[in-house]
Design goal:
This protein has 14 helices and no strands. The chain has a domain of 133 residues. By secondary structure, it is mostly helical.
Length: 339
């Protein structure tokens, strides 16, 4: 019996290891497919609305995809150009950074005990930060350039969406087919609700952050508002990163004054209210995920697929939990995934 259990554990480890290798190798195909799957869920309600208005399905799909592709690509180009201009202008803050570091070191020298400035602060190099920013923006534009592949997947997903119930009815017995179709419909509704609410919350965070930065006259406020919107899809880590980046920008611009402190406090209060009160109320307690599981998912998918994997990690985890909740034999896993 002990040998049988050891064999099963060994097989599970081997399967997981092989699955990780397959996911790593298949990234060029699986990543666009998953993005396409999420996009298809997001635009399905609009497609259903157009079909109810007697618009031919093929024409409705093409119209929605062309509009979505054009908006995403133009928006991406706008953000890339803004980010490139920001990276070109950022070195002018170098003197401000050096001055602030000198003030910090001088203040530390007057303390009764010796404190050394951390290496990461003392070796802060604006040029390196600029190069890193340009590299990130270049990767973002490259990803946008691959949107055509994503939208090819979306076309086939949306085209075959209505055929699934008929296929299930043909493949299974009547009672079983009704049960499976009802379960799939429930999963689709919950996934659409999750993506809609998450996008609405992220958009609200981005607009409010941009508004706060504009109110205080922070440079590149719209760019940091967009970063807040995008990073909100990464729970906790994303909102903290967006707040710190905006706070650093205000610190570089206004120096040692109370303005960066007020900006940072307002952003933290905004993120706290939306993240801890508004989002759980709109999302529903059933979709709350274990923080440890979220952290592990971010690390795993970030290692596997990079930044794109981190953005997909939590939505993918939420979809898996929704599926588990709707399958009676797997419901216990959904409970274990909750807070």
């Amino acid at each position: 019996m002990a040998e049988s259990r050891l064999t099963r554990i060994s097989l599970v480890i081997i399967v997981l290891f092989i699955s990780g290798i397959i996911l790593k190798i298949a990234r060029p195909v699986l990543l666009p497919f998953l993005v396409a799957l999420f996009i298809s869920y997001s635009i399905s309600p609009l497609l259903d609305w157009l079909v109810r208005l007697k618009v031919p399905k093929l024409l409705a799909i093409i119209s929605i995809l062309v509009l979505t592709f054009a908006l995403l690509y133009l928006f991406g180009l706008l953000i890339y150009s803004s980010g490139k201009y920001f990276a070109a202008e950022f070195p002018k803050y170098n003197r401000q950074v050096d001055s602030l570091m000198a003030e910090l070191i001088a203040w530390l020298e007057h303390l009764p005990f010796k404190v050394s400035v951390p290496t990461i602060i003392s070796q802060l190099n604006v040029d390196k930060l600029t190069g890193l920013l340009l590299g990130t923006l270049g990767s973002f534009l490259t990803f946008l350039g691959k949107l055509l592949i994503v939208f090819v997947f979306v076309i086939f997903i949306l085209s075959g969406r209505d055929k699934l119930p008929a296929k299930v009815a043909t493949a299974l017995a009547e009672e079983r087919a009704v049960y499976v179709n009802r379960m799939v419909a429930s999963i689709n509704r919950q996934v659409q609700k999750y993506l809609a609410v998450k996008t609405m919350i992220a958009l609200m965070n981005g607009l409010l952050a941009a508004g706060i930065l504009i109110l205080f006259g922070v440079d590149f406020a719209l760019l940091f508002g967009f970063l807040t919107f995008v990073l909100d899809y990464i729970p906790s880590v994303g909102s903290i990163t967006a707040t710190v980046l905006a706070g650093l920008m205000a610190f570089f611009q206004f120096g040692n004054s109370l303005i960066p402190v007020w900006i940072f406090l307002l952003l933290v209060i905004m993120q706290t209210i939306i993240g801890n009160f508004l989002e759980p109320k709109l999302m529903g307690r059933s979709l709350n995920l274990s923080p440890l599981l979220v952290l592990f998912s971010l690390i795993f998918w970030g290692w596997l697929w990079g930044i794109a994997g981190m953005f997909l990690a939590v939505p993918l985890l939420a979809v898996i939990k929704i599926v588990f909740e709707n399958v009676p034999s797997l419901k216990f896993l959904a409970v274990l995934m909750s807070k």
